Amino acid sequence: MPTTIQETTEDLHKAWRLLRRPCWPDTYEATVQDPIRARLVQMYAHQLALAAVLIGKLESTAAAPFAPRQPERRTQPAMPTLFRPLPTMVDRKRAAAGDRDD
Asked: Is 51 helix (H, G, I), strand (E, B) or coil?
């Protein structure tokens, strides 16, 4: 069963500090009087609390030390790039006019 995430007052105040704009009220208490801003701060505080729980779970289940992957050995292309034919450029307007480079 999933655990219920409950945001603390620290999370709420931190969310308010991170979200606050110059046009917002100067205090947290005045900001939460507006229902839209209060809900916004609460949702962001919930995200902060969830992130703290997930980071705590990741740290508690620390995996083996990081080992970089070895690159795969790939075969060389059949024809070296030096000898591949270059694509031919066609000037379609000149070709339509019947002009040729002889």
From this structure: helix
